[in-house]
Every structure is written in structure tokens, then in C-alpha cells.
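Re: the 208-residue chain
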Amino acid sequence: MLGSLLTDAALVEHDPPGVADGCGPCRRCLDGCPTEAIVAPGVVDARRCLSWLLQARGTFPVEHRVALGDRIYGCDDCQEVCPPNRRDDRQERPEAGLAARARVSVLALLEDDDQTLLERHGRWYIPDRDPRWLRRNALVVLANTGHATDPDIARRVRAALVHYLAVDDAMLVAHAVWAARCLGQEHLLAAVADHTDPQVQVELVGVR
């Protein structure tokens, strides 16, 4: 995303051209947004937009965590339901290899070290180039998708929860508490029952 442009060129001020409203009575983007972030035609409340929240610093808002579903990076629901976008069939389908690389393992995000995460996903926008924000997002997705029947996957899910409940990062611990609650692993929370950080305490209060 281009946030700013620096130039020494002489620019002529002018009013931007008007943009025709081709939407008419269509409400598909408003109705299709999982967090109702499009609050009126042409008006987006970024504080609710999953694409923005996934790239923002801080705690992921609890009221939007379930709506995140299995999204690790970005949300295109409003674009996908837009009729002009759906009509555009000029773009060929991606090659199988590219499609496979587009899928990201939430457990791998939680298990890989910092260097590996940045090497694999460095093309993404990551605040401060700090993988902790990817891990925060991954913990929310784990809470939404981590009900595993495969014994090996279930073991890895539990190991991830145990690990993040013990890390020296209260923000990640807080999200791990929420994930453990969502996955029916409340018994693991005894390990953080006496945690003094306010973020963690807020999540623990939600468990009781």
C-alpha cells in the first residue's frame, strides 16, 4: 500500500475528477462484510476492518476474533462479492504451485522461529517487522480452527497453547488464554492463574 509520495516535481493543483457511482442500490459489500465495517455506501470504519486489524498493533479486538475465521492475512470479502469483480474473468486461475503457496499453516506460524517467519512471509506488511503480530493473528485463527480430531494435530495444538501461555510476552499470553478457552482447554490456564499483566487478567476474567 502506497502511504506517501515524495517528489521535487512542480505539481499543478486541481480538483480530483468525480467518480461515477456505479453501485446503484447494490448492498453486497455492506451485507457481505463479516464485521459490518462498511457502515454506509462508500464509508469504511477501519477500526472494524479485518484487513486493517490484521496489520494493526495491539490486542486483536475480542468482538471481531470469531469473525476472523481462518484468515491469516487480509480479507477480501467485500471485493469478492462485488458484481464487477465477479464478472471479470480475464485473470487466469493461478498455477497449482502458486495456489499451494498461498495456503499458510497456522501451526507453522506458531512453531517457526523469527528468522523463518520473516524469510517465508517477509513480503507481507508486518508492523515493525516483528513476527509477534503474525503469532497474535495465528493464535486467534487457532482458536477458530483448532478443534482437531487427528491425534498428531491435536498434540501440536496443545503444545502451541502450552508454549504461548508461558512466553514472556503478555500480549501473546492473553491471546493464548482466549484460544485455550475457545478450544475447551481451560485446564491449561492454571499455569497463568497468577499472571499480573492487565491484558492477561482481562482474558482470564472472561474465562470464569
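The longest strand covers residues 38-40.
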